[in-house]
Amino acid sequence: MSADTLIISPNFTIKDIHKVRENNYNLTRDMSPQEKRDYYNTKGMEVHRLIQEHKNTKLTSVSPFRQVLGTL
Fold first, then answer.
1. Is the pTM of this model over 0.70?
2. For the chain, what is the mean pLDDT?
3. Would you say 70 and 9 are in contact if contact means Cβ atoms under 8 Å apart?
4. Distance between CA atoms of 61 and 72, rounded to whole angstroms?
5. What distance in Å separates the CA atoms of residue 14 and residue 37, rounded to the nearest whole number?
6. Residue 39: pLDDT above 70?
7. Within 10 Å of residue 68's Cβ, how many Cβ atoms?
8. In three state form, how does the secondary structure of the chain look?
9. How far, in whole angstroms, is CA 12 from its chain's centroid?
10. Which candidate, 13, 23, 71, 1, places its Cα nearest to that of 43?
């Protein structure tokens, strides 16, 4: 399963959490420790940026968060 095919249900169930974790494992299993740190730091900065944008614009939609989380 690749990041492009990860589908999360609208209700975000336990099954979805397992899908995200399995996808994350598959993406990072062949990475060196430094590559994993870089990967997680990059994703963390993306989420932080989205949170800041959300705070600044007072949006009620969480769809940008789902886009980033879906690629984790």
1. no
2. 81
3. no
4. 20
5. 26
6. yes
7. 14
8. CCHHHCCCCCCCCHHHHHHHHHHHHHHHCCCCHHHHHHHHHHHHHHHHHHHHHHHHHCCCCCHHHHHHHHCC
9. 13
10. 71
